TrEMBL record:
Keywords attached to this entry: Repeat, WD repeat
One cellular component (GO) term of this entry: protein phosphatase type 2A complex
Gene3D superfamilies tied to this protein: YVTN repeat-like/Quinoprotein amine dehydrogenase
Recorded GO MF terms: protein phosphatase regulator activity
Stated name of the protein: Serine/threonine-protein phosphatase 2A 55 kDa regulatory subunit B
InterPro entries: PP2A_PR55, WD40/YVTN_repeat-like_dom_sf, WD40_repeat_dom_sf
Length: 101
């Protein structure tokens, strides 16, 4: 069982107006022009928290392509996401796992 912190652990910007924030369970996309809401793009929270097996450990945009981002998990996976393919990446979405320890 993981002990979760109820705080944002990562903030990353790409183009000066698009940002992501990440905590242990979710990655949200923000835009400065839409200041009253964010868009959830990754959610690893299970329906039953006792079934939690991994958490998000880091998230970063690609340095030049704002539609691409990568995130890592406590299981050692690094996943690449292309935001042009889907707005929400869940267990049914196609994720590209590049490296697993």
């Amino acid at each position: 069982m993981f002990k979760l912190l109820a705080c944002i652990q990562f903030v990353c910007h790409c183009d000066g107006e698009t940002f992501i924030s990440a905590d242990d369970l979710r990655i949200n996309l923000w835009n400065l022009e839409i200041s009253n809401q964010s868009f959830n793009i990754v959610d690893v929270k299970p329906a039953n928290m006792e079934d939690l097996t991994e958490v998000i450990t880091s998230a970063e945009f690609h340095p030049t392509h704002c539609n691409m981002l990568a995130y890592s998990s406590s299981k050692g996976s690094i996943r690449l996401i292309d935001l042009r393919q889907s707005a929400l990446y869940d267990s049914h979405a196609k994720l590209q796992v590049f490296y697993r320890f």
